Amino acid sequence: MTGNSIRPIRKLLVANRGEIALRVLRTAREMGIATVAVYSEADAAAPFVRAADEAVCVGPAPSNESYLIMERIVAAARKTGADAIHPGYGFLSENAEFAEAVEAAGIRFVGPHPHAIRVMGSKLAAKDAVALRNIPMVPGTEGAIEDPEEARREAQRIGFPLLIKASAGGGGKGMRAVHDPSQLESELQRAISEAERSFGDGAVFMERLVQQPRHIEIQVLCDSHGNGVHLFERECSIQRRHQKVVEEAPSALLDDALRQRMGECALEVAKSCDYVGAGTVEFLVDASREFFFLEMNTRLQVEHPVTELITGVDLVREQIRIAEGHPISFSQEDLVIQGHALELRVYAEDVAGGFLPSTGTLTRYRPPVGPGIRVDDGVEEGGEVSMHYDPMLAKLCTHGPTREAAIERMLRAIEEYEVQGVDTTLDFGHFAVNHEAFRSGKFDTGFVDAYFTPEALHRALPCDDETMADLVLGAYDRLIHDGGHAHGASSRQGSTLEEPGSGLSPWRLRVR
């Protein structure tokens, strides 16, 4: 492709909502590109709608009646004259049919070609694509498994414990761990049924269960000129229900040699499907520091900010430039890790109740500010947290010169983050990043199961002004009578004081 082939994007439609829509809209505005938002009826007053130059309603609140109807998204682009569509993540971002429909309409898709999405959207097809490229993979079956007898033969070869996984899966759906041969047939049928319900595709395969795994992913960028770079790794091992909650870059596990090997492997995976755009190659790393290819996500990742913070690269800007036909604006040698970054996904969830979604009105919403703090959010005070969409409110990110500095900054930011009206994962985040296992860097994907209990949280309920006054007077009284050591909580129901040793000032009243 020559310079004459570069076609600037004039108007960009963002086919998403919430914080990622705002994130893309802001970079587009900095680039001088006009913007279009699409929204459901439930999101009519959302901040991302106001941030766009134009906005088009695409249907009722349920996503399968609005954001997931590709014909309405393409029609909105045509109506507004948008010449490009950015899918964000989730929704239609990894739907090859959507990418094809966008291209068929003469509109540019800010993402990879449909072929790459289709290949990497199937774990079995992805394994086939990388098979001849010397990419380390977890021992397992080469194709889908349906017959229990065949499953038993393959299990003998692979060995126990093993994992049954949906080929089209993600987020832990259609995934079953099998530790005993007697469980194999029943777990196989459960995995197939769940895969069919969740993805409309019951294909499952088996692979060895990696013990004490770390979830490490590599960010890659590839352009249409044959250039490719990796932007180092992200550590994503703190998970609940196989979904990430805390991420960081770089990983405390990797040294320079392992980082280089994994980066080179990630670029080989991208080459295997002629990838163009921003993508992420995910690996499992075992206790002996051997790594295995897991999958490739053909889109921007939720945790992309930590990579931006340690590299200084705006990944959305690079996505848009690549879609315009530009080569990547830097080389591998230009990239240097600058400090350390953490991200906490702030979900509206009842952590003590099993991380279940929490809905309601945000009666108070005040994100933290200050040096080294970045908050990517899509909500505001007075807004509704709906049952219709993912419960993530924001991504709280911190950056510092060292890992320890980033952790301390994260703890401070969590303490200053004020949310009332819904339960959140803020207290869980404080517990996680302040835990000895996390601070030491010696943890794996079993962190939550191994260390977390609801009793570990220092939770507080909202209280009114009268209760607040009682708490302050009670704290003062204890200061006088207990020699300055505050402990315990007010007897008034619905109010607490932080306990000493929690990592917070014992005099700080946390009201959420």
Word description of this protein:
By secondary structure, the protein is an alpha+beta fold. The protein folds into four domains: 3-110, Rossmann fold (3-Layer(aba) Sandwich), CATH 3.40.50; 139-208, ATP-grasp fold, A domain (Dna Ligase, domain 1), CATH 3.30.1490; 214-456, ATP-grasp fold, B domain (D-amino Acid Aminotransferase, Chain A, domain 1), CATH 3.30.470; 460-512, no CATH class. Helix content is 32%, strand content 23%. The chain contains 16 helices and 22 strands. It has helices at residues 18-30, 47-51, 70-80, 96-104, 114-120, 123-130, 148-158, 184-199, 256-271, 304-311, 315-324, 403-416, 426-434, 436-440, 447-451, 465-481; strands at 11-14, 34-40, 54-59, 84-86, 108-109, 162-166, 176-178, 204-208, 214-222, 228-240, 243-249, 277-285, 291-297, 340-347, 349-350, 356-357, 360-361, 364-366, 373-377, 384-385, 392-400, 418-420. The strands form six sheets. Strands 13-12-9-10-11-14-21-19 form an eight-stranded antiparallel beta sheet, sandwiched between helices. Strands 3-2-1-4-5 form a five-stranded parallel beta sheet. Strand 10 and strand 11 form a beta hairpin. Helix 4 (96-104) packs antiparallel against helix 5. It is globular. Mean pLDDT is 89; it is low at 459-476 and 478-512.
Identify the notable features of this structure and list them briefly.
alpha+beta, Rossmann fold, Dna Ligase, domain 1, D-amino Acid Aminotransferase, Chain A, domain 1, 8-stranded antiparallel beta sheet, 32% helix, 23% strand, globular, disordered C terminus
